[in-house]
Amino acid sequence: MAKKKVNRQKYQLYRVDWYDAFSAGGGWNSLDKVPESHMLIHSVGWLIKDTKKYFILAQQMSDNKNYSDTINIPKVWIKSKRPLKNWIHYESSPTEN
C-alpha cells in the first residue's frame, strides 16, 4: 500500500530581541529629569508571517491552522532575531487522519 502524501507547513520558533517605546509613568514628572530611553524586549514565538515591514509571531499554535496571541514587531525596531533550532511546529493537513 502506497503511503499517503501529507501536506504540512512548518513554522519555526524564534527569539526576537527588539526595542519598544518607554513611558516614564503617570503622574507629575520634572522636566529636568525626562528619561531618554527605550526598553529592550525579548519575545519568543512561532513565526507565522514575515512581511516587508513586520515580523509576526504567535505564542500558541494548534494542529488545525489556529493560532493565538500574536505580536507584530516592526522590523526597524528589531535588534536581533534567531531561530530556536530544535523547535519546529508542523501543521497537520486536514486530510491526514
What does this 3D model show about the protein?
This protein has 97 residues and is mainly beta. It is built from no helices and five strands. A five-stranded antiparallel sheet has the order 4-3-2-1-5, with no helix packed on it. Strand 2 and strand 3 form a beta hairpin.
Give a summary of the structure in a few sentences.
This protein is 0% helix and 56% strand. The protein contains no helices and five strands. The model is unreliable at 93-97 (pLDDT under 50).
Q: Unreliable segments (pLDDT under 50, ≥5 consecutive)?
A: 93-97
Helix/strand order = EEEEE
**Tertiary shape:** elongated
The counted number of beta strands is 5
The oligomerization state is single chain
Mean pLDDT: 82
* Strand residue content: over 45%
**Separation, N- and C-terminal Cα atoms:** 16 Å
Main sheet summary? 5 strands, antiparallel
Strand order of the largest sheet: 4-3-2-1-5
What would you call the structural class? mainly beta
Rounded to the nearest angstrom, the radius of gyration is 19 Å
Number of continuous helical runs:
0
Portion of residues within helices: under 10%
Label this structure with key terms.
mainly beta, five-stranded antiparallel beta sheet
